[in-house]
Amino acid sequence: MIDVRTVDLPEVTLAYRVSGPADGPPLVLLHALGERASDWDVVLPGLAPGHRVYALDLRGHGDSGRPGAYGLPAMRDDVLAFLDALGLDRVDLIGHSLGGAVAYLLAQAAPERIDRLVLEEIPALYPRPASAVPDDPDEGVHFDWAMVRAVKAQLDDPDPAWRDGLASITARTLAVAGGPASYVPQERIAELARLIPDCRLVTVEAGHLVHGARPEEYVAVVAPFLSL
Asked: What is the mean pLDDT of the chain?
């Protein structure tokens, strides 16, 4: 059973979905840009059946607040505030794409809070050509377009400290790459795996949306890592 809840944090209200045994070890899931917590439902049954799982809507996404101020550091701080609000001292953490970047920034900032870390289709970040965002996008999407513009600007021109900080991550880490069908440069994911001291790289030939496109294969590589 999945319960949908909210928590009021100092800067924003976050919506989240919680499932699994109440006394299980905590696992936090962070979605990609433009997605929401329910994106993980397809892998929940087999991913971590013994864990207490918290899937978050990041700020500006889903049913979480849209405060107007956006960026990866703010999202990182939201997740840390979420852990504090729920009394979660140490967690396993999974992030996909944008959620992976937020996850590794959190693992850098608060290494004592993260046990196992799974980074799905997120590379070591380097400057890239700016990507366009519609000036007048369609209404009715479940995210704030102001958030998309702010986040894309940071991903296009990332702080070099984010890449340098990968070497300071102490969590046991699994990097999941999607193979040549992904638009993410796979050599940058391999670089991320080399820069994180305790990191193993696994490729699932699925493109960028690994857990959505190949849920059984994703669970087959991630679930054993979470049970170590």
From this structure: 96
Closest residue by Cα to residue 62 from 32, 103, 27: 32
**Rounded distance, CA 193 to CA 189, Å?**
6
CATH class of residue range 3-226:
alpha beta
* pTM, to two decimals: 0.97
| CB contact set of 177 (below 8 Å; sequence gap of 6+) | 121, 184, 186, 189, 190, 201, 202, 203, 204, 210
Residue spans per domain, the chain: 3-226
**Strands in 25-171 per DSSP E:** 26-30, 52-56, 91-96, 114-120
Helix (H, G, I), strand (E, B) or coil at 215: helix
Q: Render pLDDT for 17-41 as a digit per residue (tens, 0 to 9).
A: 999 999 999 999 999 999 999 999 9
Query: Please, what sign has the CA dihedral across residues 61, 64, 65, 70?
Result: negative
DSSP 90: S
